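One thing: mind reviewing this one?
=====
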Amino acid sequence: MFKKIVENIYIKNTAILSFFFILIGCGQMNLKNFSNNKPELKIEEYFLGKTSAVGLFIDRFGKVRRQFTVDMEGIQDGENFILNETFLYDDGEEEFRKWIITKTSNNTYQGTSEDIKGIAKGERSGNAINWHYTLKLKYKDGILNVKFDDWLIMQDEKNVFNKAIMKKFGIRLGEVYLFFTKKEF
């Protein structure tokens, strides 16, 4: 009888641990998994010229909180790539962000913007780029610093999908989804 109880506990705990490790594995995208995917995504090529996007923010409870459009223009300026973004939200608010992006190696980038705390770091592999940065998000009467794990994945020469997870104190606040379309080739 005791042996049977121990076996049941062992089986139950093994199943719970296996499920836990599966969840951990499913929760993380790995840049290496994109290494052979084509076409290659290079910020300085795809975003050069005019690009537009539609997007939305979904909170951690699954509720759509904001929808928006973005018009962008990318300009090569010597060593720097300038990306001007104009956001128009569904409530009429308009926001402008100017990124200054520097290619630091064949597969890495650094970026700055007035509403980014410190330096954004990006790495590319195949058709994907993963950015990590802290955004100074306007919240009520102040600023809320939120961490972004930002993924751009190129579908074809014209379309890029973007998923960004927002966190504060390690707690997931929500996700931002964008669908970019290249206006010119």
Summary: The domain at 36-182 is CATH 2.40.128.20 (Lipocalin). The chain has two helices and ten strands. The beta strands are 49-59, 64-77, 80-89, 94-103, 108-112, 116-125, 128-139, 142-154, 159-168, 171-182. The longest helix spans residues 2-27.
